[in-house]
């Protein structure tokens, strides 16, 4: 309908980001929304056909995007993260992947009706999950650390391995059906795979060394890194098609385990690029489908194949491969259920469909429909069920968003205790044991360590917590904590206490851009809050009802009382800030810092005497 390349590019990017935002608003899996959006504007309404309109650029654009996404995912594969999960992860990505290949291939042959050669090629490809689908689902589901780590590592590592298995199966087919292909060609295949791995390792070490030595300025680090990633992918892919994915994975893992500070500094930029690329590529792929392909999905053989892959092949391969590991049955069940296929399966299956058809295997015509059926079915099934299944298996964190409180003192200990009473997940963080000891005696969860330390990322599971209150005695440190977590948590959920007027006065002019939102008001400084608690003030909670309004509540409380925050009916705790707008509904619970009964009586006596 629209033939302008500019319009197509604009619509693809716009729909991708709109789908991400819409999925966030309505709490649906982003991949499902993107897939539906692409189908509507593509084969259903015929507005765009990216494959046709981008022409020869369509394949390279998708390939480069997949390379960057896979590299960004592999940068998160720090071996320190799986110190206690090394054995099950190794078993899943080796023995489990092999089982999934064999079982999936036999299912494709006997159920989908593919010939054995084609079945073993596509069976190898379909073991992939990948960061394009796994990482968004993990962000959505808020799993506990162990199953989340397993799914993430499996998705990223198996991605290139699945493609290599499919390539290996294809080379074996050529060896038997094409006389021109000899045993030397098989050796060249393994040589090309080894070359891709070594190339990724060398470039990863080289980039890490240049970053550490300062040979690349800060403003060029991200552009140079992405240029080298594309170079790494392209060189390996020129040597042998599809080995570029293995090369960029090796490069990313190498840099991740060099523990370079620059990589952490660029993490949020790379994540933003990854989100943009995932959104764009999913729209492009689904919008390029043909109506005939969509109708072919309803073939009973294809439906039967998808059902068996979901309910038999995946769970069986995980359960068998994890025998003898320390995974609980709940963890094995969850990992055995979650295996959504994504961009790699969609893109690479098109390549194998074409080369298999050229080789003379006519049954390869259904590979595109078979692939999309499996991708869309797994994305929908796992995207909508991961949260529910995780809760049933007790592998999801509490629905109530929690609070990290930084700084151990009389005020934060009291605040942590009252939040724990109202069932808000809370943890008190401090680098000094002495500041945490009184809180531990009161049963408040604590973490001894430096929140900004890289090691904390591997010791403290931050998934249950969506907000941070920085309340140490150093204003500049509070601002640094809030600024550090702004990209991952958002400034709306970052708070810091006010300090004395003359304390760190040089930061006053930066308050609107640096640090978190100021709690309460500027008069309620940390020193004042601590003084109140130490003089006998206590935390109290009061529920607002239809009969007892917020206006009545304000009339009855002491003038010296300080409103701390509100716990709404859904269990979300919102601290009061300097410019807070009063929106209190029946069912909300107000928390305040008030003088004790004795203190209140003394105050009334003084007022009467006056």
From TrEMBL:
Q: How does it sit in the membrane?
A: Multi-pass membrane protein
Primary localization class, coarse: membrane
SUPFAM superfamilies according to UniProt = NAD(P)-binding Rossmann-fold domains (SSF51735)
Query: RCK N-terminal domain: from which residue to which, for each copy?
Result: 404-484
Q: Give the InterPro entries listed for this entry.
A: Cation/H_exchanger_TM, Na+/solute_symporter_sf, NAD(P)-bd_dom_sf, RCK_N
Q: Which UniProt keywords apply?
A: Antiport, Cell membrane, Ion transport, Membrane, Transmembrane, Transmembrane helix, Transport
Does the record's keyword annotation contain Transmembrane helix? yes
UniProt cross-references to Gene3D superfamilies, sorted A to Z: 1.20.1530.20, NAD(P)-binding Rossmann-like Domain
Locations listed in the record: Cell membrane
Q: Where is the Cation/H+ exchanger transmembrane domain?
A: 12-392
Question: Which spans are transmembrane here?
Answer: 6-24, 31-48, 60-77, 89-112, 118-138, 150-177, 183-203, 272-290, 302-322, 334-354, 366-390
Coiled-coil ranges per the record?
Answer: none
| Alphabetized PANTHER family for the sequence | NA(+)/H(+) ANTIPORTER 1, NA(+)_H(+) ANTIPORTER 2-RELATED
UniProt-recorded name of the protein: Cation:proton antiporter
- Its source organism is Jeotgalibacillus terrae
């Amino acid at each position: 309908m629209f033939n302008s390349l500019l319009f197509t590019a604009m619509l693809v990017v716009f729909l991708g980001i709109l789908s991400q935002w819409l999925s966030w608003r309505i709490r649906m899996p982003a991949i499902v929304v993107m897939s539906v959006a692409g189908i509507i504007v593509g084969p259903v309404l015929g507005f765009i056909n990216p494959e046709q309109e981008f022409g020869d650029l369509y394949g390279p654009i998708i390939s480069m995007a997949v390379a960057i996404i896979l590299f960004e995912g592999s940068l998160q594969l720090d071996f320190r993260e799986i110190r206690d999960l090394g054995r099950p992860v190794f078993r899943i990505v080796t023995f489990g992947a092999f089982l999934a290949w064999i079982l999936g291939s036999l299912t494709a042959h006997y159920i989908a009706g593919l010939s054995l050669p084609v079945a073993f090629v596509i069976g190898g490809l379909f073991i992939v999950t990948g960061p394009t689908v796994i990482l968004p689902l993990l962000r959505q589901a808020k799993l506990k650390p162990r199953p989340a780590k397993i799914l993430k590592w499996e998705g990223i590592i198996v991605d290139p391995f699945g493609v290599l298995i499919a390539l290996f199966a294809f080379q074996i087919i050529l060896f038997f059906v094409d006389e021109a292909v000899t045993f030397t060609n098989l050796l060249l295949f393994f040589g090309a795979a080894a070359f891709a791995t070594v190339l990724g390792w060398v470039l990863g070490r080289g980039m890490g060394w240049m970053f550490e030595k300062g040979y690349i300025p800060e403003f060029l680090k991200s552009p140079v890194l992405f240029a080298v990633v594309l170079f790494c992918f392209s060189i390996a892919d020129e040597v042998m098609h599809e080995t570029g994915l293995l090369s960029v994975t090796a490069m990313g893992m190498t840099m991740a385990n060099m523990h370079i500070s620059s990589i952490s500094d660029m993490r949020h930029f790379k994540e933003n690029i990854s989100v943009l690329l995932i959104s764009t590529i999913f729209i492009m792929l689904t919008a390029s489908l043909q109506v005939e392909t969509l109708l072919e999905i309803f073939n009973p053989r294809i439906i039967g194949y998808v059902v068996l892959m979901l309910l038999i092949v995946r769970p069986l391969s995980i359960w068998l491969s994890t025998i003898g590991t320390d995974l609980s049955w709940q963890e094995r069940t969850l990992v055995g259920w979650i295996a959504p296929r994504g961009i790699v399966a969609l893109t690479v299956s098109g390549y194998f469909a074409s080369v298999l058809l050229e080789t003379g295997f006519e049954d390869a015509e259904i590979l595109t429909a078979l692939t999309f059926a499996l991708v869309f079915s797994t994305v929908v099934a796992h995207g909508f069920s991961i949260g529910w299944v995780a809760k049933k298996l007790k592998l999801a964190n509490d629905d109530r968003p929690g609070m990290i409180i930084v700084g151990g003192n009389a005020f934060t200990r009291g605040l942590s205790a009252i939040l724990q009473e109202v069932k808000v997940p809370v943890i008190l963080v401090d680098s000094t044991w002495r500041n945490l000891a009184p809180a531990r005696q009161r049963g408040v969860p604590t973490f001894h360590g430096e929140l900004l330390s890289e090691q904390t990322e591997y010791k403290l599971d931050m998934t249950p917590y969506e907000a941070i209150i920085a309340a140490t005695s150093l204003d500049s440190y509070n601002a640094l904590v809030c600024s550090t977590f702004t990209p991952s948590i958002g400034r709306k959920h970052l708070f810091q206490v006010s300090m004395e007027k003359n304390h760190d006065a040089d930061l006053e002019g930066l308050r609107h851009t640096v640090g978190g939102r100021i709690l309460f008001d500027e008069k309620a400084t940390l020193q004042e809050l601590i003084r109140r608690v130490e003089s006998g003030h206590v935390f109290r909670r009061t529920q607002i009802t239809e009969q007892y309004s917020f206006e009545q509540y304000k009339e009855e409380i002491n003038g010296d009382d300080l409103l701390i925050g509100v716990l709404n009916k859904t269990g979300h705790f919102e601290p009061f800030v300097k410019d807070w707008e009063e929106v209190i509904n029946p069912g909300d619970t107000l928390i305040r810092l008030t003088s004790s009964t004795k203190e209140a009586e003394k105050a009334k006596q003084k007022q009467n005497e006056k």
